[in-house]
Amino acid sequence: MVVSNDVSVNWAGNLTYSASAVARPGTPQELSDLIRGTDRVKALGSRHSFCDVADTTGTHVLLDAYDDGRPAVVVDPGSGVASLRAGLLYGQAGAALLGQGRALRTMASLPHISLAGAIATATHGSGDANGCLASDVVGLEIVTADGGTRTLRRGDADFPGAVVGLGALGVVTRVEMATDAAFQVSQDVVVDLPWEALLTDLDAITGAAYSVSAFTRWGDDTVSQVWLKSRVDDPSHRPGGDATTGAGRRPAREVLLDLGARDAPGPMHPLAGEDPAASTVQGGVAGPAHERLPHFRAEHTPSTGAELQSEYLVPRERAAEAIDAMRGLGAKVRPLLFAGEIRTVAGDDLWLSPFDGDTLALHFTWKPDGDAVRAVLRDLEAALLPLGARPHWGKIFVASPSDVAAMFPRFADFAALANRMDPQGKFRGGYLTRLLPA
Fold this sequence. Notes:
- 22% of the residues lie in helices and 23% in strands.
- It has helices at 28-36, 90-98, 115-120, 159-162, 195-200, 202-206, 252-258, 319-328, 330-333, 370-384, 401-406, 411-421, 431-435, and strands at 2-4, 21-24, 41-43, 59-61, 73-75, 82-85, 102-103, 137-143, 149-153, 171-177, 180-181, 184-194, 211-216, 222-231, 262-263, 287-288, 308-315, 337-345, 359-366, 390-391.
- The strands form 4 sheets. Strands 12, 13, 14, 15, 16, 17, 18, 19 and 20 form a 9-stranded antiparallel β-sheet that branches.
- The longest helix has 15 residues, at 370-384.
- The mean pLDDT is 94.
């Protein structure tokens, strides 16, 4: 096992971790011994959280060299459930699954994020029928505080509390996920969608494709871009599609053009002025799902890199109110914003998932000015939290830990589960010390 004393920073460079050491266990025994013999320890994934939810004052554990003696990706041919090493990146998992004729059902904007980290924070992609990434998990293998291994599967009493677990229960070493047969996606981009169309025809817009993302800086006269990702090889998965006849709805692009949008003049990047070469292929060219569902290519630096991010998840029935509130804050938000994104996510039953019903996700990619961003977040949260909005666990927000805990009806059950599985608080650090005080 490799152990070093370097103190790491997160992906965006806005956070320096407090860990005194970084360990890369190579085997299950090394990981078990490390956890058993360490007072404070925490798994660290691809370092894409913008807050200190993954921090510790003890040892950070990276799983990029971990080998449990099993193939990194194993698919059960009967059920289609895939068992995957938790340290894999989503792009790596997608490519490996394609080689076995399978595909992840949904992906986030970035393929660069780790399975376990994204799942633990309820990270998500987009689509009226697509839940967050954690919603496809059917099993978890966790190394717990005593160094033992516990496997939880859907149907177990603790399972819905453990999936979006914020790293509080142990080090997840393997995840089991439901997959689909391999499918292809084509991506189209339209520009300058009138705001009136978004507000009055929201269901038609978000239901036009398998995954829909609308981009705005909240001060624009129109919604600047809408990205439409359509499944092209399985009509039963198209909105309104019929598996028997092979008929689907009109192409998503045509739906948006009829609502007043225009075709994009060429390949686009979500952030104005950035090189579209980093973006996934557009123009209706079909490709494997894991190469189209994200916004960014795995081989490129995503977004801008030097940025901050926030996100608020609003009940779908309050969508129009939330969008109106954000438009009213445009003058305050726009000077600090690279881009805002509007997406939809289906609900799930996981205790700490913010998606306990169908949800509108409002994402913000900010310029790297932490003090100014936190100041505007106070205004933003004053407008959105009364509508039932909840913050993304891995991004920047200013609501107090006690207020955030109160947003989740099963939070007390989660706290009890964390205390039972980790009575000494070995896996707590950073934000978790404030969310789950001893």
